[in-house]
């Protein structure tokens, strides 16, 4: 039994250490086909080589969320196997497109530790980097999780809490090399609305809904080699339910947001995110968005738009928190990201 | 909310207009692998590059129904989002194989309009063409749907009903370039029966059945980027059920027909089709076929066979309509197509 | 109806005959992506081209169990459509890696026949070989099944029972050309344990569990073009349940065994196997292993390890048979195989 991975506990982390996560993964067109089977993904730049070429890219990259899920999945056995809660994301940036045939691996640096006052758990902050086969970073983000202590007598580490800006500055976003939206085909993309048509504060109800099934979320989560027991094993939680991987909700909501944001093509920044309530099979996921900010970029015809993406399991759109400041019970996800859009 | 697609209503169509549908799609071997996972597809020409080469093709094309589903799926947001019923197909022809790596897009010309006497709905006839990245047509078919009016006061258009022959003439079928069945390997194909072994009027019970699941039909439908709400959202229909995409039934029945029609390799014509009754998860799909016609072709060793393919959800085979001329309640599909078979 | 395949019955087999099975299949990266979606497969050599290159291979081969399932699936219509029980496996050897783009087909030689005393059934022994597009064998194994007689008056054949050694001799295992584990990266592989760290008799509880769904096992089974009715059709068994393909349990257990056996990279021998009890949707599959034997090989840094892999649907690990010598009711699979591991 000593040979199986029991996961790390709070006392097993040291600020400054770097963890090289296991099981590199070569991703190709098969993973893209699966992504389009699991989510109603329709952003044209990720669907058609010719459309991507019309935007200055050599061909269609893999969906940005595939990169996120693969990189994230590798961290689970080392970071969140004994996690009580996934507390937040910050400072996420997509640094280079992932092309079919790339091999991804992940590394995480521990950048903060804070034991909780109960002495039983603590918060671990990691900065995770996804790298391709050329050792070039393709994605980085900060994530913090609450992790159990195994030995509650282990001494508390010095508290280190990293300073995390509320959002990635627009000037820090990395625009994929060659991207050019000056000849963008709005008809083939599916909607006529450009960067200039969106106003800060504007909200969009994405209208469509998808009722999720056990088989789907397990297959999606497995595809990213995410091994957290709670997603697969009905005996892992007291009520016998399988908790849906938060990333499944992210991808579903992002795909649903096509309807009203078809031209928010590339995700380049992850400012923050909260998995507000658990999602279970049988829930019908819906989504709405709010425009939080806009910025110009140096690339021809390319604007940046900062969006709040909210996934719900019912209820009216545009509701987020109650009078107590807490998320309403039917809110699943509150995500804050930057996307690139034709100007 | 103005930015989301509410779909077109009856009064939004004009005879003669051409709609360029959105979201082109590059399809590769991943889509083929998925097709073989979702359906019990075993026709050897679509399973093995070497078998296809033995039939004169450069390698194995994507299944003809993949081409149909991808082309059809793109039309949904513009043609059938507000459809009350899918009324029929006619004059369908596969014009060129779809190869892994091809990018497909769709266009539809409105060729007919007829307002119903109730003033609330009307029938829209479109001729849809699927095109590859070289702008070569790979598939065309006529489809007519009943669509709601949004503004019931909108004036009725002039009635235009296209003349639609009962079937594609055998002489109009397009045989893929190079196809040659003279060295056809019947053992590897799975059955010894050739074109000459089938007689007009002959009926075949395909014996096998598949009980369908929600996860499967949703993944299949999503794969083709078909966005119709009724397939995904349990709140879209009064009884909370998700209606299975008619094309899922077509592909399931075609795959089941391998058992008895293993050598009906390529689908080249779609003469007509009716989705006779709704299919829901839990139904067990079975299929039977009837030989309607036979014709020779100009390609070496290649014959054409016209088949009725009937999918049911139970009951005895070979039953289709009641004394009232209406489809029996357990009939799901009545499809009329041309396939190519070794002589 | 004469044209559909009713399957072979016991009296239809002759010792010495070779059956060429139908429907060759080209397998590529799409099939690999699906395998990683259907099973929690994480062995690094099958996940990353770069990792495989670090082990002396040109790139990452398809999982050994994909080869097994594809080769096995093709035999079903000719060998086990009328089987009452799958009795055993022996003398299985993987003879060459399967690379993306290979086309597989199967042949079986009938090597034994023994009518049962009841006169209604008999045991058929076949040696199945999987071949690639160069007609090179990639896999061979012996399997025996109990098959119904159609005509109980048909005379009993001479009894021929092949001699089947208990295990493949280590010296008969075929090591893939070029395989070299001297620069093996244990960190990227996920565990630090090498061949020398395992002792004969050692047992490992693989800890994780997966609750299986109907949609998943049907998709997996269909992917291998396995057509046995009992897996798909709720009307095929008296209780309305769909029996899960035994190979689905094999792949699930092998994938779960990563946790504790992450370095048992390549499966090269199949000594024996029993599907001890039926597996149904809703069961939670767990696995444990026992080290049965160890051997050196001629390849640099490569050791062979013989493992018993047991899949269960609950209960404590390490329990296998009752006092009566029969498998306990929660044991699903008892598999005996050889794998290659860094020394």
Describe what you observe in this structure:
The structure is a homotrimer of 343-residue chains. Chain A is an alpha+beta fold and 343 residues long. The first copy, chain A, has a single domain (10-151, 166-342), classed as Roll (Thiol Ester Dehydrase, Chain A). Chain A is built from 7 helices and 12 strands. Chain A has helices spanning 29-38, 49-54, 64-79, 186-189, 214-223, 246-256, 258-261, and strands at residues 18-20, 25-26, 83-94, 103-115, 121-131, 137-148, 203-205, 210-211, 266-275, 284-296, 302-312, 331-342. In chain A, strands 1, 2, 3, 4, 5, 6, 7, 8, 9, 10, 11 and 12 form a 12-stranded antiparallel sheet that branches. In chain A, a hairpin with a 5-residue loop joins strand 4 and strand 5. In chain A, helix 1 (29-38) packs antiparallel against helix 5 (214-223). Chain A is globular. The termini of chain A are far apart. Chains in contact: A-B, A-C, B-C. Chains A and B meet through helix 1, helix 2, helix 4, strand 8 and helix 5 of A and strand 2, helix 1 and helix 5 of B.
Radius of gyration of chain A: 20 Å
Q: How many strand units of chain A?
A: 12
Question: N-to-C SSE series of chain A?
Answer: EEHHHEEEEHEEHHHEEEE
Helix content of chain A: 10-25%
Kindly report the CATH topology of chain A: Thiol Ester Dehydrase, Chain A
Q: pLDDT average of chain A, as an integer?
A: 96
The largest sheet of chain A, given as strand count, sense and whether it forms a barrel, is:
12 strands, antiparallel
Separation, N- and C-terminal Cα atoms of chain A: 58 Å
Pfam families (chains A, B, C): MC_hydratase (PF19315)
InterPro entries (chains A, B, C): HotDog_dom_sf, MC_hydratase, MCH/BMMD, Thiol_ester_hydratase_Rv0216
GO molecular function, one term (chains A, B, C): lyase activity
